[in-house]
């Protein structure tokens, strides 16, 4: 039986309470700050005042978030994570974090967030899995669903300084998603989203 496609777009969408953030530029990377020392850096020209949770995705493009919480070490730190896609590398969409994690922050608590994890797409791999879907008119079509690899880097939200590496996050396309809400309609291809368990394991290590 073919699965139903709800919409057509450019990347897989995560089931989360944050919204995508469209930004431009290059991820900001600097020396790892000493706990409590991140406030010494002066705001740059690309500094942003966040008005919603999605605005923190600008950190992944090198911005500082003026009204983010300062990073003073792992104890009590709150975190968001964002991932981009091969089709729209400057569009950073939030990824899920379990609400029982000590570093979890809801979408309305974005000013409490001091850490942003950026998952940058570095490639697809392996033979695509052919997934059959139906559009809203019940017309069948096939999507090539591809395993993906991301590099995870952590930044202090307020300063944009790099504070840690989360390593490679690989997500196999083991099975077709039940609901595919977005894909590249030119290539008829979609990439697997970053694995939540791997992201949380990296956050556990960084913020424990």
Beta content comes to: 25-35%
Helix/strand order, N-terminal first: EEEEEEEEH
Q: Give me the secondary-structure category.
A: mainly beta
Morphology call: elongated
Number-wise, the strands total 8
Largest sheet: 8 strands, mixed
Please outline what is shown here:
This protein has 1 helix and 8 strands, in the order ββββββββα. With 208 residues, the chain is mainly β.
Report on this structure.
With 208 residues, this protein is mostly beta strands. The protein has 1 helix and 8 strands. It has one helix at residues 196-207, and strands spanning 3-4, 21-22, 78-83, 91-94, 113-134, 140-156, 162-171, 189-191. Strands 1, 2, 3, 4, 5, 6, 7 and 8 form an 8-stranded mixed β-sheet that branches.
List the helices and strands and how they pair.
Layout: E1 3-4, E2 21-22, E3 78-83, E4 91-94, E5 113-134, E6 140-156, E7 162-171, E8 189-191, H1 196-207
Keywords, separated by commas or semicolons:
single chain, mainly beta, 6% helix, 32% strand, disordered N terminus
């Amino acid at each position: 039986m073919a699965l139903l496609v709800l919409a057509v777009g450019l990347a897989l969408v995560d089931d989360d309470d944050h919204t995508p953030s469209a930004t431009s530029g290059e991820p900001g990377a600097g020396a790892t700050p000493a706990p409590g020392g991140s406030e010494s850096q002066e705001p740059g020209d690309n500094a942003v005042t966040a008005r919603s949770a999605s605005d923190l995705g600008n950190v992944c493009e090198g911005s500082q978030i003026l009204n983010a919480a300062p990073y003073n070490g792992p104890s009590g730190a709150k975190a968001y994570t964002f991932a981009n896609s091969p089709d729209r590398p400057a569009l950073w969409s939030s990824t899920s974090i379990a609400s029982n994690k000590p570093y979890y922050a809801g979408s309305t608590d974005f000013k409490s967030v001091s850490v942003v994890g950026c998952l940058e797409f570095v490639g697809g791999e392996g033979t695509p899995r052919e997934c059959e879907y139906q559009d809203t008119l019940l017309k069948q079509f096939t999507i090539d669903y591809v395993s993906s690899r991301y590099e995870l880097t952590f930044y202090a939200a307020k300063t944009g300084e790099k504070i840690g590496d989360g390593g490679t996050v690989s997500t196999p396309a083991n099975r077709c998603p039940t609901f595919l809400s977005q894909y590249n309609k030119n290539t008829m291809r979609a990439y697997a989203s970053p694995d939540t368990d791997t992201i949380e394991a990296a956050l556990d290590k960084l913020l424990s």
